[in-house]
Amino acid sequence: MDAFDDFDIQTLAIRAGYDQTPEQENSEAIFPTSSFRYESAAQAAARFSGAEKGNVYSRFTNPTVRAFENRLAALEGAEACVATASGMSAILSTFMALCQAGDHVISSQSIFGTTKVLFSKYLAKFGVEISFVSQTDFSEWQAAIRPNTRALFLETPSNPLTEVADLQAISALAKDNDCLLVVDNCFCTPMLQRPLEQGADIVIHSATKFLDGQGRAVGGAVLGSSELVGEEVRGFLRTCGPSMSPFNAWIFLKGLETLPIRMKAHCENAIELARWLSKHPNVEQVFYPGLESHPQYDLAQKQQSAGGGLVSFKVKGGKEQAWTVIDHTRMMSITANLGDVKTLITHPATTTHSRVEPEQRLKAGITDNLIRISVGLESIDDIKNDLMIGLDKL
Ligand SMILES: *Cc1c(COP(=O)(O)O)cnc(C)c1O
């Protein structure tokens, strides 16, 4: 396989990671096979022992899945990538592979609701202690470090309030204390932010979101060094089996080809929508890292190349007013997903964050008047008009 080392990231998204088969196909092939045939008993034995590299069984070695892994690794600048059945299984696999009972994990409190449940309900059940700290207050991260802290976890920008965490400061803290920094890079994708270059040890993706980009399949990925990800996380996947199917890998592989151009277009629509919402009289506050009014605007400018595709805002009023805006849209999809060419609208308090205790939810700033928009690639005028119907009624 050509490493394409000297190519631009936009080219890597289209060209990296795939070995053409003897059929000379131009578009990547799908290999829907559970197992592989060997030339001899000796070759089978060599594959199983690892003495000979190659395919063994599609739970942990499949050519289509590997092509997706290689291509995403090229984009994130990672030595190794392991594809998983979902974003949640990417997070689970990482912590099951790298932590053990007695370890302590520090997580930003501003993370995806389901990830919070994974940490506080399931990791805790296996003796891994978890502390939640402020995404943006570095002193809380410092104060939470213990001798047994194994890993720090965050998403930046956060969901749904787009708080930006300081990757360089937090990765330096992790290094000083011999622990790992794990970053969920779902919102930015490698097109806007490459956490490994900024000191993170592991990057996690929900491929379900922008990597696919068209809302077709559920998948995830873990990226990092050959040692941590190539050996440890892959070992977990091989044994425990939360693997990506070849069909889904193919969808994501083809999704990566348009990732650079899609992310650019998402960001262009999002900044325009954020600016427009900021001026609407019935909007109380807009959350978007590309807005000069964002509290971490300078930090976002430093570590991301653009603001991303997610815009959240608070309407004047409460749940009733938020629901009025949502229910008056004609075009947008009312759904909790994100990262689609279709614009998606969500009421976080009663959907994505409904399993979080009300008190915790308020502490995290997820109020009843908050709406999250995953800005799609429809005409920006149609997107604005769709929100205007309800907003003008308040
Ligand atoms: C959706 C999401 C996940 C979980 O991914 P799934 O593919 O739905 O399992 C994790 N982190 C973030 C930031 C997400 O948005």
Automatic annotation (TrEMBL):
Gene3D superfamilies: Aspartate Aminotransferase, domain 1 (3.90.1150.10), Type I PLP-dependent aspartate aminotransferase-like (Major domain) (3.40.640.10). Its EC number is 2.5.1.-. Its cofactor is pyridoxal 5'-phosphate. It catalyses: O-succinyl-L-homoserine + hydrogen sulfide = L-homocysteine + succinate. Keywords: Amino-acid biosynthesis, Methionine biosynthesis, Pyridoxal phosphate, Transferase. Pathway: Amino-acid biosynthesis; L-methionine biosynthesis via de novo pathway; L-homocysteine from O-succinyl-L-homoserine: step 1/1. The modification N6-(pyridoxal phosphate)lysine is found at K209. Pfam families: Cys_Met_Meta_PP (PF01053). It is an enzyme of class 2 (transferase). Belongs to the trans-sulfuration enzymes family. MetZ subfamily. Homotetramer. Catalyzes the formation of L-homocysteine from O-succinyl-L-homoserine (OSHS) and hydrogen sulfide. This is O-succinylhomoserine sulfhydrylase. It comes from Thiomicrorhabdus heinhorstiae. The lineage of its organism: Bacteria, Pseudomonadati, Pseudomonadota, Gammaproteobacteria, Thiotrichales.
